[in-house]
Amino acid sequence: MRLHNFFKEWKKLRDSSRTSKTALSSMEDKITVIARKHFGTKNLRTKSNDEDNGYTVMVWEIKDALTEAYKAGRQEAEQKAKVIDYLRRIK
Predict the structure, then answer these.
(1) Of 12, 23, 51, 81, which has the fewest beta carbons less than 10 angstroms from its beta carbon?
(2) pLDDT attached to residue 7
(3) Distance (Å, whole) CA 68 – CA 35
(4) How far apart are alpha carbons 7 and 12 in whole angstroms?
């Protein structure tokens, strides 16, 4: 039964980090999604024109975006910690 639970937890962790529309795997993709949501940017690539590289954003927009990024990182770390903790307990 313990081994079954381990694989169940491992599968959840693996599935949560796969690239899809709902769960993006790379940090850059996650940051781009957050920037698009909060700042209306298409992407975070540097353009050749200084006017296209700057955005006017409100302080609360920055706070909301940073809060969302922090929560996403914390959630990912908590999921990984659960799997590691479980692996330690079944040894």
Answers:
(1) 51
(2) 60
(3) 10
(4) 9
